[in-house]
Protein backbone atom coordinates (compact mmCIF):
# COMPACT_ATOMS: atom_id res chain seq x y z
CA UNK A 1 0.00 0.00 0.00
CA UNK A 2 1.35 3.46 -0.89
CA UNK A 3 2.32 5.39 2.18
CA UNK A 4 -0.07 8.31 1.62
CA UNK A 5 -2.96 5.84 1.40
CA UNK A 6 -1.72 4.07 4.55
CA UNK A 7 -1.69 7.38 6.44
CA UNK A 8 -5.19 8.19 5.19
CA UNK A 9 -6.49 4.78 6.27
CA UNK A 10 -4.99 5.35 9.70
CA UNK A 11 -7.17 8.43 10.08
CA UNK A 12 -4.32 10.91 10.27
CA UNK A 13 -5.14 12.97 7.19
CA UNK A 14 -6.42 12.77 3.64
CA UNK A 15 -4.09 11.41 0.96
CA UNK A 16 -3.31 14.91 -0.30
CA UNK A 17 -2.56 16.14 3.21
CA UNK A 18 -0.42 13.04 3.78
CA UNK A 19 1.66 13.97 0.75
CA UNK A 20 2.21 17.43 2.27
CA UNK A 21 3.40 15.82 5.51
CA UNK A 22 5.85 13.68 3.52
CA UNK A 23 7.21 16.70 1.65
CA UNK A 24 7.73 18.45 4.98
CA UNK A 25 9.85 15.52 6.20
CA UNK A 26 7.39 14.60 8.97
CA UNK A 27 6.90 10.95 8.00
CA UNK A 28 9.29 8.08 8.72
CA UNK A 29 9.23 4.43 7.66
CA UNK A 30 11.14 2.05 9.89
CA UNK A 31 13.04 5.01 11.33
CA UNK A 32 14.01 6.56 7.99
CA UNK A 33 12.53 9.83 6.72
CA UNK A 34 10.33 9.18 3.70
CA UNK A 35 11.32 11.24 0.66
CA UNK A 36 9.48 9.41 -2.15
CA UNK A 37 5.71 9.84 -2.42
CA UNK A 38 5.48 6.43 -4.13
CA UNK A 39 6.97 4.60 -1.13
CA UNK A 40 5.06 1.41 -0.26
CA UNK A 41 4.28 0.12 3.23
CA UNK A 42 4.54 -3.63 3.82
CA UNK A 43 3.26 -5.81 6.63
CA UNK A 44 5.37 -5.28 9.74
CA UNK A 45 6.62 -1.84 8.72
CA UNK A 46 6.49 0.95 11.31
CA UNK A 47 5.19 4.29 10.07
CA UNK A 48 5.48 7.40 12.22
CA UNK A 49 4.03 10.86 11.63
CA UNK A 50 5.67 13.67 13.59
CA UNK A 51 7.37 11.06 15.76
CA UNK A 52 4.21 9.13 16.64
CA UNK A 53 3.55 5.60 15.34
CA UNK A 54 0.28 5.22 13.48
CA UNK A 55 -2.03 2.24 13.12
CA UNK A 56 -5.12 1.51 11.09
CA UNK A 57 -8.29 2.26 13.03
CA UNK A 58 -11.90 1.29 12.58
CA UNK A 59 -13.45 3.85 10.24
CA UNK A 60 -15.98 6.06 12.02
CA UNK A 61 -18.23 8.88 10.79
CA UNK A 62 -19.97 11.54 12.86
CA UNK A 63 -22.44 14.33 12.17
CA UNK A 64 -22.09 17.43 14.37
CA UNK A 65 -24.33 20.46 14.74
CA UNK A 66 -21.50 22.96 15.09
CA UNK A 67 -22.17 25.94 17.38
CA UNK A 68 -20.93 29.47 16.75
CA UNK A 69 -17.46 30.25 18.06
CA UNK A 70 -16.00 26.75 17.71
CA UNK A 71 -12.99 26.14 15.46
CA UNK A 72 -13.22 23.52 12.69
CA UNK A 73 -9.90 21.91 13.56
CA UNK A 74 -8.35 19.14 15.62
CA UNK A 75 -6.41 21.62 17.78
CA UNK A 76 -5.94 25.37 18.08
CA UNK A 77 -2.71 27.18 18.98
CA UNK A 78 -4.73 29.92 20.70
CA UNK A 79 -6.47 27.44 22.98
CA UNK A 80 -9.92 27.97 21.53
CA UNK A 81 -12.50 25.17 21.60
CA UNK A 82 -12.44 22.92 18.55
CA UNK A 83 -15.09 20.67 17.02
CA UNK A 84 -13.13 17.63 18.23
CA UNK A 85 -13.48 18.91 21.81
CA UNK A 86 -17.25 18.50 21.40
CA UNK A 87 -16.84 14.72 20.96
CA UNK A 88 -14.71 13.81 24.00
CA UNK A 89 -15.79 10.15 24.10
CA UNK A 90 -14.61 9.35 20.59
CA UNK A 91 -11.38 7.33 20.84
CA UNK A 92 -10.49 7.38 17.15
CA UNK A 93 -8.41 10.24 15.74
CA UNK A 94 -11.18 12.06 13.91
CA UNK A 95 -10.96 15.36 12.08
CA UNK A 96 -13.49 17.59 10.28
CA UNK A 97 -14.46 16.98 6.65
CA UNK A 98 -13.78 20.46 5.30
CA UNK A 99 -14.38 23.51 7.45
CA UNK A 100 -17.00 25.89 8.68
CA UNK A 101 -15.89 29.38 9.75
CA UNK A 102 -15.77 29.97 13.51
CA UNK A 103 -18.93 32.10 13.29
CA UNK A 104 -20.76 29.71 10.94
CA UNK A 105 -23.02 27.11 12.53
CA UNK A 106 -24.58 23.89 11.38
CA UNK A 107 -23.81 20.55 9.79
CA UNK A 108 -20.23 19.33 9.89
CA UNK A 109 -18.96 15.80 9.31
CA UNK A 110 -16.01 14.31 11.20
CA UNK A 111 -14.21 11.07 10.39
CA UNK A 112 -10.90 9.24 10.40
CA UNK A 113 -11.37 8.07 6.79
CA UNK A 114 -9.14 10.05 4.45
CA UNK A 115 -10.58 8.59 1.27
CA UNK A 116 -14.11 9.46 2.39
CA UNK A 117 -12.96 13.00 3.15
CA UNK A 118 -11.50 13.45 -0.33
CA UNK A 119 -14.69 12.07 -1.86
CA UNK A 120 -16.92 14.44 0.08
CA UNK A 121 -14.98 17.67 -0.46
CA UNK A 122 -13.83 17.33 -4.07
CA UNK A 123 -16.00 19.60 -6.26
CA UNK A 124 -16.06 17.07 -9.12
CA UNK A 125 -18.37 14.89 -7.02
CA UNK A 126 -20.92 17.71 -6.70
CA UNK A 127 -22.16 16.85 -3.21
CA UNK A 128 -24.88 19.36 -2.36
CA UNK A 129 -24.13 21.67 0.55
CA UNK A 130 -27.10 23.80 1.61
CA UNK A 131 -26.69 27.02 3.60
CA UNK A 132 -29.19 29.36 5.18
CA UNK A 133 -27.93 32.95 5.19
CA UNK A 134 -29.33 36.04 6.89
CA UNK A 135 -28.22 38.97 4.79
CA UNK A 136 -27.87 42.72 5.10
CA UNK A 137 -29.64 44.01 2.03
CA UNK A 138 -32.62 43.13 -0.10
CA UNK A 139 -32.32 39.89 -2.06
CA UNK A 140 -34.06 39.80 -5.43
CA UNK A 141 -34.07 37.45 -8.40
CA UNK A 142 -32.15 40.09 -10.32
CA UNK A 143 -29.25 40.49 -7.92
CA UNK A 144 -29.04 36.76 -7.12
CA UNK A 145 -29.20 35.55 -10.72
CA UNK A 146 -25.39 35.78 -11.25
CA UNK A 147 -24.98 33.08 -8.60
CA UNK A 148 -26.71 30.59 -10.89
CA UNK A 149 -24.08 31.21 -13.56
CA UNK A 150 -21.09 31.50 -11.25
CA UNK A 151 -19.34 34.56 -9.87
CA UNK A 152 -15.63 35.32 -9.66
CA UNK A 153 -14.16 35.19 -6.15
CA UNK A 154 -10.43 35.21 -5.43
CA UNK A 155 -9.78 35.26 -9.17
CA UNK A 156 -11.70 32.06 -9.93
CA UNK A 157 -15.28 31.54 -11.05
CA UNK A 158 -17.55 29.49 -8.81
CA UNK A 159 -19.63 26.62 -10.06
CA UNK A 160 -23.32 27.42 -10.70
CA UNK A 161 -25.37 27.55 -7.50
CA UNK A 162 -29.08 27.40 -6.67
CA UNK A 163 -30.91 29.86 -4.45
CA UNK A 164 -34.28 30.20 -2.76
CA UNK A 165 -35.40 33.52 -1.27
CA UNK A 166 -36.97 32.63 2.08
CA UNK A 167 -37.78 36.05 3.49
CA UNK A 168 -37.32 39.73 2.71
CA UNK A 169 -37.81 42.49 5.31
CA UNK A 170 -37.52 45.93 3.66
CA UNK A 171 -38.09 47.75 6.98
CA UNK A 172 -34.94 46.20 8.44
CA UNK A 173 -33.09 45.95 5.11
CA UNK A 174 -32.62 42.23 5.66
CA UNK A 175 -33.17 39.03 3.71
CA UNK A 176 -32.96 35.30 4.33
CA UNK A 177 -31.74 33.16 1.44
CA UNK A 178 -31.07 29.45 1.07
CA UNK A 179 -28.05 28.70 -1.13
CA UNK A 180 -26.97 25.32 -2.53
CA UNK A 181 -23.37 24.89 -3.72
CA UNK A 182 -21.05 21.98 -4.54
CA UNK A 183 -17.69 23.47 -3.64
CA UNK A 184 -16.08 24.31 -0.32
CA UNK A 185 -13.63 27.13 -0.91
CA UNK A 186 -12.45 29.47 1.84
CA UNK A 187 -15.31 31.74 3.01
CA UNK A 188 -17.05 30.86 -0.24
CA UNK A 189 -20.69 31.55 0.64
CA UNK A 190 -19.88 34.90 2.22
CA UNK A 191 -17.79 35.95 -0.77
CA UNK A 192 -20.44 34.84 -3.25
CA UNK A 193 -23.06 37.02 -1.60
CA UNK A 194 -20.61 39.91 -1.38
CA UNK A 195 -20.05 39.56 -5.13
CA UNK A 196 -23.73 40.38 -5.70
CA UNK A 197 -23.85 43.23 -3.18
CA UNK A 198 -25.15 41.44 -0.09
CA UNK A 199 -23.38 40.97 3.24
CA UNK A 200 -23.80 37.84 5.35
CA UNK A 201 -24.92 38.62 8.88
CA UNK A 202 -25.54 35.04 9.99
CA UNK A 203 -24.78 31.72 8.28
CA UNK A 204 -25.63 28.08 8.92
CA UNK A 205 -25.15 24.90 6.92
CA UNK A 206 -28.38 22.94 7.07
CA UNK A 207 -27.72 20.01 4.72
CA UNK A 208 -24.79 18.02 3.42
CA UNK A 209 -25.68 15.56 0.68
CA UNK A 210 -28.44 13.33 2.05
CA UNK A 211 -27.96 14.50 5.65
CA UNK A 212 -29.64 17.21 7.71
CA UNK A 213 -29.63 18.35 11.34
CA UNK A 214 -32.92 16.80 12.41
CA UNK A 215 -32.86 15.90 16.11
CA UNK A 216 -29.54 17.60 16.89
CA UNK A 217 -29.20 20.71 19.02
CA UNK A 218 -26.12 22.97 18.66
CA UNK A 219 -23.11 21.15 20.08
CA UNK A 220 -24.69 17.72 19.75
CA UNK A 221 -23.38 14.95 17.50
CA UNK A 222 -24.30 11.45 16.45
CA UNK A 223 -22.58 8.61 14.66
CA UNK A 224 -23.64 7.96 11.06
CA UNK A 225 -25.09 4.60 10.17
CA UNK A 226 -23.56 2.37 7.49
CA UNK A 227 -26.57 3.15 5.32
CA UNK A 228 -25.99 6.91 5.62
CA UNK A 229 -22.30 6.58 4.74
CA UNK A 230 -23.22 4.38 1.78
CA UNK A 231 -25.78 6.95 0.57
CA UNK A 232 -23.14 9.70 0.63
CA UNK A 233 -20.69 7.51 -1.24
CA UNK A 234 -23.28 6.55 -3.82
CA UNK A 235 -24.26 10.20 -4.32
CA UNK A 236 -20.64 11.09 -5.06
CA UNK A 237 -20.22 8.16 -7.47
CA UNK A 238 -23.49 8.96 -9.26
CA UNK A 239 -22.53 12.62 -9.75
CA UNK A 240 -19.09 11.61 -11.06
CA UNK A 241 -20.53 9.40 -13.82
TrEMBL record:
Its EC number is 5.4.99.-. The keyword Glycosyltransferase does not apply. One of its GO terms (molecular function) is isomerase activity. Keywords: Isomerase, RNA-binding. NCBIfam families: pseudouridine synthase (TIGR00093). Belongs to the pseudouridine synthase RsuA family. This is Pseudouridine synthase. It comes from Streptococcus dentapri.
Amino acid sequence: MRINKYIAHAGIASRRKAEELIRQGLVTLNGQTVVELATNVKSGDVVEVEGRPIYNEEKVYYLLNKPRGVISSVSDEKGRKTVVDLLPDVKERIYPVGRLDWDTTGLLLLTNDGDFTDEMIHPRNKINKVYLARLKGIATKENLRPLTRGVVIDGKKTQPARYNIIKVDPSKNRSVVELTIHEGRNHQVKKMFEAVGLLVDKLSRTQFGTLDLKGLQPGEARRLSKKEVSQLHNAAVTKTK
